[in-house]
Structures are given as structure tokens and as C-alpha cells.
Specification:
It contains eight helices and seven strands, in the order βαβαβαβααββαααβ. Strands 3-2-1-4-5-7-6 form a seven-stranded mixed sheet, with helices on both faces.
Length: about 240
């Protein structure tokens, strides 16, 4: 299945576990919709302070570096706003504190579409990824919709909001392939902003291998290059 709403420019909220995860999972699609006039806001859940094998860097220093890298990547993609929740890396929990923060973001930005990571990938998956996807889905439904969920938001002028669709990247069973042929270079540039994570990602051989992977996904949709998602449509 392919989805191509050329005539639409929906508001989009991207909920990502760590800096760099969104670019890897949905960077082309983000740039694609930005080019068509969508407002895209990125929510980064953790501070990313454990994402290194370098024993010479302090966690607080790494967190600052990764936040700066994320802001640079967001500019490349054309993302209009970035919200840093700064929760502990490797410490996300399926709890009320995290859920309330995501419900708040949904009610603030009122997205028609939410992008996040699929929490259902079997066996080995980063715990922060699983927690982000699970709590984001719960925030979308039912919490963000009901006025009795976090009623303090009403006093702050944040009304309940109904998300129309969710797109999950990293799914083992994708059913939606989006044509990202025109934004390949943009995704690569955004990924390369995350210098602390990418290593020698600018190596032409690695870029070619990455392209081959998305060419294979494109074959399923009849386009040169595609990103794959599990799409969930919510009833009104």
C-alpha cells in the first residue's frame, strides 16, 4: 500500500526516543511533507547522554552535543519546532509522568498525524524505543482525547485533541510505503548532522548500502525509493 496526499499539508508531530532516531526512521518522509507545506514538530524524549562508546566524554557533555546536533538536523529537514523532554537515556518508563508530557505535546500542537517508533518489534529492541512507542500510542488514544485525562491541561488552555493517523517506523509488518525519492539527499544530510553517532556514515559505500535498502522498499511501492511504516487510522 502507498499513501500520497499531495494535496494535503497535515500538521505532524514526530515523537522520537533519542536524538537521531527520527532521521533514521522517517527523515525522508518528514522532509517530503515539509516540502508540501506541513508544519512538523519533533519531540525528543531522552537526553541521549548514554549514546556513546567513548569513555572520555562525560554524560552531561554528550547530552549538550546531541541536543545541538538534533537542532542542526531539524534545520536541514525543515522542522519548525523541537521539544526536548530531557528524560533519562535508558530510563524511559511507561508511567504517568511520561504519558502526561506526550499528551501535553499532542494537545499543544494538535497534529493530524503522529509519527513514532513501532513498540511491537519482537525480541531485541532498545527499551527506550519500546517505551516511547507504547506510551506515545497510549497518549494518542485514549488519553489526549478525553477531557478527564489530565484535567489540569484544561486550566492551561489545552483542549482534548483527536489524532487522525499514526505512522510507525521500524515495524516488522509495514503496510504503507511512502515515496521519498526526491528527499534522499536531505535525509543523508540530516543524519550526518549527528556526528557523535554516525561515525564514518559519510563514506560513499555506506551511503550506497543505505540507498539499496530503500530501493528494495521502493520496489514494493513501484517507486525508486521508499520508507516503510505501519499505518494506524483512528476513528473520529
Amino acid at each position: 500500500m502507498t499513501t500520497d496526499r499531495v494535496s494535503e499539508a497535515p500538521n505532524i508531530l514526530v515523537i522520537t526516543p533519542h536524538p537521531d532516531d527520527a532521521e533514521g526512521g522517517a527523515g525522508w518522509t518528514i522532509a517530503r511533507w515539509v516540502n508540501r507545506g506541513s508544519k512538523v514538530v519533533l519531540v525528543v524524549c531522552t537526553n541521549g547522554d548514554k549514546g556513546t562508546s567513548d569513555r572520555g566524554i562525560r554524560p552531561e557533555e554528550l547530552a549538550k552535543i546531541r541536543e545541538a546536533e538534533q537542532l542542526e538536523a531539524a534545520k536541514v529537514l525543515g522542522i519548525q519546532g523541537v521539544s526536548f523532554l530531557r528524560l533519562p537515556d535508558q530510563g524511559l518508563q511507561d508511567n504517568d509522568e511520561f504519558r502526561e508530557k506526550l499528551v501535553r505535546e499532542i494537545r499543544m500542537h494538535k497534529p493530524e498525524i503522529v509519527f513514532t517508533i513501532d513498540p511491537s518489534r519482537p525480541y531485541i529492541i532498545h527499551r527506550d524505543h519500546r517505551m516511547t512507542g507504547r506510551v506515545a500510542l497510549d497518549a494518542v488514544f485514549p488519553y489526549a482525547r478525553g477531557h478527564l485525562a489530565y484535567p489540569q491541561h484544561l486550566a492551561q488552555g489545552l483542549e482534548p485533541h483527536k489524532v487522525r493517523e499514526v505512522y510507525l517506523w521500524g515495524s516488522e509488518s509495514p503496510d504503507t510505503y511512502l515515496d521519498i525519492t526526491d528527499t534522499f539527499d536531505t535525509k543523508i544530510k540530516a543524519l550526518l548532522c549527528h556526528k557523535s553517532q554516525m561515525g564514518n556514515a559519510s563514506d560513499p559505500t555506506r551511503i550506497a548500502r543505505r540507498r539499496e535498502r530503500f530501493e528494495e522498499l521502493g520496489k514494493r511501492a513501484g517507486v525508486p525509493l521508499a520508507e516503510a511504516f505501519k499505518r494506524v487510522e483512528l476513528g473520529r
